[in-house]
Amino acid sequence: MAVQHFDISLNSRFGFRGSCPINPFFVEWQDYVYRHLLNRNGDAFYSSVEDKSLLELCHKHASLYNKDLSTSNLLVLTHPFYLHLSHMHYLYNNTREQAESYINTLVSLFTNNFPHNKLGIVVLDPIHYYAALSSSLLEDGKIDRIIFTKYDEGKVLDSNDLEFFRGKDLFFGGGYYGHCLSTSIRDVHELGIARSIHAVTDLVVSSPQHSLSIKPRAVLGVKGKDMTWDEVMQMILDNT
């Protein structure tokens, strides 16, 4: 039996209805979104007629739910569901176990009583992944803010959005290490606007393509400090 490119259990994991992840707000775009989750063949700035329309709708939706956060601590997740929406068919044995551990940590993060007043959650996502899943989490208040990235890139679509990170302590996770996630971290680091930059190792994955492991040994190197999720939460609680 062929393996789906997306995790068919995603909706039930996060408490949403239906077997296929799509926010009902974007249901008319479902077929179009799914084509792009499987075959990413757009351009960085969403210049096609369809992408322009979807981008406009995504901005409209996000403007209804994005929050201005008072906390200086932000968990920043770059493309957190990329693996489970597009690359499940590349997983096997060890990498499947690692992917399960990763998504379980995300599910716990998004479904438990999380102290958003102490650590805000910001997701960097392309529009198709936003329409599929992260928009639903934004509606439910599980995500505090969305920043759109370029198509299939970790660079934000509007560079002015990076100002939201000025003076903040950032804890990065998501995927992929060496690709989109690393681009997001590098862009913020080079601007020098964040007070500190950390990586949450439990919440970082590498691409499963041509790899025996999707868990990198180290993430930030000289740019900051690698921490586990438990270490992050303990540090937040100790400082509040």
Biggest sheet architecture? 6 strands, parallel
What does the average pLDDT come to? 90
Structural class estimated from helices and strands: alpha/beta
Q: How many structural domains?
A: 1
Low-confidence stretches: none
| Shape-level CATH architecture | 3-Layer(aba) Sandwich
> How would you sum up the global shape?
globular
Q: Give a count of the beta strands, DSSP E runs of length 2 or more.
A: 6
Radius of gyration: 17 Å
> Approximately how much beta-strand content do the residues carry?
15-25%
Question: What does it look like?
Answer:
- The chain has 240 residues and is of the alpha/beta class.
- It has a single domain, classed as 3-Layer(aba) Sandwich (Rossmann fold).
- Helices cover 37% and strands 16% of the residues.
- It has 8 helices and 6 strands.
- A 6-stranded parallel sheet has the order 3-2-1-4-5-6, sandwiched between helices.
- Helix 6 links the parallel strand 2 and strand 3.
- Helix 3 packs parallel to helix 6.
- The longest helix is centred in the middle third of the chain and has 19 residues, at 93-111.
- The radius of gyration is 17 Å and the shape is globular.
- It starts with 9 loop residues before the first helix and ends with a helix.
